[in-house]
Amino acid sequence: MKSLTMACLAAVALLAACGNDSNTTNGNGAGLNGPPPGAGPNGGPPGGNGRGPGNAPPGSQEDLVQSAGDRIFFDTDRSTVNDQARAILDKQAAWMQQNPNVQVWVAGNCDDRGTEEYNLALGQRRANADKSYLMAHGIAATRIETISYGKSRPIDPGNGAQAWAQNRNAITSVK
User: What is the pTM (predicted TM-score) of this model?
Assistant: First the structure.
């Protein structure tokens, strides 16, 4: 009897968690009120260093995440920079202009659907779209290298719309 009661309570808790619609997306992988669920306020990783915003060493990865965000998200099978991504890339371009000696990697990533070859090519197009946007906003091409990881480095290893939205991205990292 105890195990039946525990199983029922677990099922109710699971259903209550599934019923939360705050993770609804707007179709581009972003939540209706910002980055995909699990991403930080600027599109970067959740959490932080405990030092508060603006306290990272200038020009560091931590500074990039706090000041501009380190990632943009894409629609399924697309490498077009959308409005939300442009806002983050505008901040990244301004940050790079304030840190003229910083060089970055831009890694294009995909969700786990599709072939490895397709996802490597799509990831490269995403990284190149990010780089092209930064270059169009005054950042020298020599400061930006690109790479595609395709589907080999997921942020969220899960399977489903929420995980896929997290994994369709381009991530900027300080070299």
Answer: 0.71
Is the CA virtual torsion 158, 81, 87, 175 positive or negative? positive
- In the chain, how many domains are there? 1
* Per-residue pLDDT in tens (0 to 9) along the chain, 175 residues: 444 444 434 443 333 333 333 333 333 333 333 344 444 444 544 444 434 456 899 999 999 999 999 999 999 999 999 999 999 999 999 999 999 999 999 999 999 999 999 999 999 999 999 999 999 999 999 999 999 999 999 999 999 999 999 999 999 999 9
Range of the domain at 69: 2-174
Q: Output the domain CATH number for residue 153.
A: 3.30.1330.60
Q: How far apart are CA 23 and CA 73, in angstroms?
A: 15
